[in-house]
TrEMBL record:
The gene is flaF. Keywords: Cell projection, Cilium, Flagellum. Pfam families: FlaF (PF07309). GO terms for biological process: bacterial-type flagellum organization. InterPro entries: FlaF. This is Flagellar biosynthesis regulator FlaF.
Length: 125
């Protein structure tokens, strides 16, 4: 199904459940995490796909950072600061991963931890 067909299907269904911003963020992080993990296994044979996955993950984090830095963000200040720090760390670590001086697992762990928080599951596991 093409993206246009998917959009038509979604808009044609008035009974479709509305997505919350939290569920959208969760889904985006899940997709980025899965993509980074999948492309990491092919890093040596398909580096452009791997670099693209890292780039898209960083774009997502950049968007999240801009949101938490905005004055209209309703999250508690401490959580906003922590999320902004995670963006900064993700940016620096992504560069190291591309240089092959660091591993991708830390980025996967960060995304997974944030996904747990979005899901309301503070447990480690």
């Amino acid at each position: 199904m093409s993206p246009l067909d998917s959009a038509r299907t979604a808009y044609a269904r008035p009974d479709a459940p509305l997505r919350t911003p939290r569920s959208l963020e969760y889904d985006l992080l899940a997709r980025m995490t899965q993509r980074m993990t999948a492309t990491a296994t092919r890093r040596d044979t398909d580096f452009p796909a791997f670099a693209g996955a890292l780039h898209d993950n960083l774009r997502l984090w950049s968007t999240l950072a801009a949101d938490v830095a905005g004055s209209g963000n309703g999250l508690p200040p401490k959580l906003r600061a922590q999320l902004f720090y995670l963006y900064q760390f993700t940016a620096a670590h992504s560069a190291k991963v591309l240089e092959t001086s660091a591993d991708i697992e830390v980025l996967v762990d960060i995304n997974t931890a944030v996904m747990r928080g979005l899901r309301g599951d503070g447990r480690r596991g």
